[in-house]
Each structure stands twice: as structure tokens, then as C-alpha cells.
Design goal:
The chain has 296 residues and is mostly helical. It folds into two domains: 1-193, no CATH class; 197-296, no CATH class. It contains ten helices and no strands. The chain has helices at 6-14, 17-29, 31-70, 75-114, 118-143, 149-180, 199-206, 210-217, 222-255, 261-293.
Length: 296
Amino acid sequence: MSLLKFKEWDQINEATVLDKIKTWFSGNFGGKIKKLDSLLGDYKDSELRFVDEWEEIRVEIDKLELQKKQVKSDPAEHKKIERLIERNKGVSTAAAKAHDKKTDELMSKVKEVIESDQKLKNYWETGKIKVDSEVSEEMYKRAKKLADQDLADELYRKYKDSVLKAKEKDEEFRKEYGDLLGGRGEGKKSPDYSPDYSESEFEVLSKLSVLDFSERVKEFPKDEAKRLVSYLLKERNDLYVQMDMERDAVNAALAGKTSTVKVKEDAAEKLKEIREKYMPKIREMRSKITIARKYA
């Protein structure tokens, strides 16, 4: 499975393949490439500003959702918080519409530069898809800080899909225009090339099914596999810590109560729920650690 190597693009740039392609484009299209690069910068700035605005609203909704759970016994306060949540959702929808309008205006400028030239279109699309991947990664990172796990899961899927799409587009672009420059040789890489996976890439990899994870890790150089093992061990340990903290909270609450049969049964049920919440994740992480160690 192709996966998430943002740094790889930069390293290939340094290895001159894309530098040569860009020089070729600049020589043949002059100021149009500079204009497209400028519009790519504008597009990325606009997307990241929208992420900032989105995060601000989502954080507020997140707080309100937590408050709503705490006032279940107060119908008036519960209803008031629901209205505030809906108001913030309305603000989010309006912000998204305004953002879409700005994007449409920017895309109109892009079309004027590209006109009907397929090479310029490919150049723009490759840059845009990479930006989309970086922006979706940023949005996913921020969503993980919120209490809404469903939102984080939804954005994770978007992140994964956009990165894989960007990787495919980037490879198509380099192949087509590398060949145009005289060919770069299928499968050839710079002697100094190193995948150099980032922690966010390890994180996405760790969320794959065990089968997909196993297939992907086969491609890892030994040093990268060692780094991956270290990352997975840390993640497994963090899960144990989180589980123990929740258990301690239940036990601390129990210590302050009269030990009736009902209290003990409730505590036992909560402890069971905590174990069922974390142990499947821990067991899966153990399996992935075992797999990764085969290649380390």
C-alpha cells in the first residue's frame, strides 16, 4: 500500500528531478509558472486560515457538548446549551460557504493562467493535491484534540485518502515529466535517499489493519523499522497509562464512598468497561510490534 511520505517529495526535489522539471516548465511557460506558484501559496494560506477558523468553532462546540452532558438534570440549561451548539454549527456552515466562494474565485484565476494547456493543468493539480494532503493532515491533528472521536475518525479517513491520492499524482507527474526530460530510470533513487518517516506517518501506519500493516512494513529499511518499533512501544505504553489512570479514578471514587454491594458492583462494571475499551487496542499494538520487529 502506498503511504504518506511528505518528506520524500522534498528529498526528491533536492535530488534534482523536480528541480529539472520546474526549470523546464519555467523555460517553456515563463511567468505562468511563477503565477501558478503564487496562486498555490494563496490557496494554501486560505486553506490553513479556514482550518484555524474551523478549529476555533469546533473547540467551542466540543466544550458545549461536554457541558450538555453535565446538565442533563436541568432541562432549561440543557436546552440553552443545545441552542448555542446549533448557533455555532450555523456559524461553521456559513464559514464553509464563504471559504468555498473564496476558493472558487481563486480557481477562476488559475483557469485564466492555465487556459487549455494540459501540462500547466498537470503542474497545478500536482501542487494542489499535495497542499490538500498537508491541510487534511493538519485538520486531522487538530481534531484528535477534541472529544468527538467520530469527527476525528471521519477526518482520518479523509486524510488517508487525500495523501494516497497525492502520492499517486506525484508519482504520475514525476514519471511523465521525468521521461520528458530524458527519463529518470524506473525505480532509481538518489544515493542519499532515505524515506525518513515522520511521526505522523507512523501514526497513520499504526491505524491500519494488521494485514495491511504487515504488507506495508515489508518495504521498510531496517533503520526505519527500528524507529517504527520504538514508536509502537511508546503508543502501547501510553495506552497502558491511560487505562491505569481511568482505573485509578474509579478506585479513588470508590474509596470515598460507603462500600455497599451496589457501589462495588458499579465499580466492577466500570473497571470491566475500561479494560474492554483498551485491551483490544493494546493487543493489536502488540501484534504490530511483533511484526515490525521482524524487519528491525
